[in-house]
Design goal:
The structure holds 2 protein chains of 2 kinds. Chain A is an all-beta fold. Chain A has no helices and 11 strands. Helices cover 0% and strands 56% of the residues of chain A. In chain A, a hairpin with a 2-residue loop joins strand 5 and strand 6. Chain B is mainly beta. In chain B, the strands form 3 sheets. In chain B, strands 2, 5, 6, 9, 10 and 11 form a 6-stranded mixed beta sheet that branches. In chain B, strand 5 and strand 6 form a beta hairpin. The chains are: A mainly beta, B mainly beta. Chains A and B meet through strand 5 and strand 10 of A and strand 6, strand 9 and strand 10 of B.
Chain lengths: 115, 111
């Protein structure tokens, strides 16, 4: 399995809802990433997990809560989001978060709409 | 701070013409440069990285440290090359974790 799988593909939620995005990889990668991508814009890094530990948090609001239960799985818990949080959320993984030689492999993303 | 600049948001060429997508970077440490591509309705994927010095789908890119550039070139563009191209940078100083993207260039190859 050489893919990063994200579920769901689409999500619509109200501002009071709680939902979660899921990301899975079975490539033995030990670094996983969450990005946010607005239309016609590049991905913006949100969080990095390296060996199941949070190593980078790009000052993301607390209404986004990441979780890495094991080396293959990455979740993003969402609570009390704002309409401006509507975007494509991308997950990526790489062999390690400790070398520049890493290639990041991206999932297809979850398209989130906050009403 | 890491910064990547792609001066052209849109680039349009005819099939068979040469194409060059520009990328300049700003970083004082040891950068690692990549080109990622996003075809319509497909996921973001790696096209090239400078340490590999390889040609993928006819594209090449050379890191010019003097000019801090990593331009992407192809001598004869094909219609299937139409896509969004992102130049990206990471560094030894962040252990390769932080990937900074440029704003992207939307390439259209006309028949």
């Amino acid at each position: 399995d050489t893919e990063v799988t994200q579920t769901p593909k689409h999500l619509v939620m109200g501002m009071t809802n709680k939902k979660s995005l899921k990301c899975e990889q079975h490539m033995g990668h030990r670094a996983m990433y969450w990005y946010k991508q607005k239309a016609k814009k590049p991905p913006e890094l949100m969080f990095v997990y390296s060996y199941e530990k949070l190593s980078i948090n790009e000052s993301v609001p607390s209404r986004f809560s990441p979780e890495c239960p094991n080396s293959s799985l990455l979740n993003l818990h969402l609570h009390a989001l704002q309409p401006e949080d509507s975007a494509l959320y991308l997950c990526a993984s790489s062999l390690s978060g400790r070398t520049v030689k890493n290639i990041q492999y991206f999932g297809a993303g979850t398209r989130l709409s906050v009403l | 701070a890491q910064r990547v600049t792609q001066p052209e948001k849109l680039l349009s060429v005819f099939k068979g013409a040469p194409v060059e997508l520009k990328c300049n970077y700003s970083y004082s440490g040891s950068p690692e440069l990549f080109w990622y591509v996003q075809y319509s309705r497909q996921r973001l994927q790696l096209l090239l990285r400078h340490i590999s010095r390889e040609s993928i789908k006819g594209f090449t890119a050379d890191l010019n440290k003097g000019e801090t550039s990593f331009h992407l070139k192809k001598p004869f563009a094909q219609e299937e090359d139409s896509a969004m191209y992102y130049c990206a940078l990471t560094s030894k100083e962040t252990s390769g974790s932080r990937l900074t993207f440029g704003e992207g260039t939307q390439l259209t190859v006309n028949p």
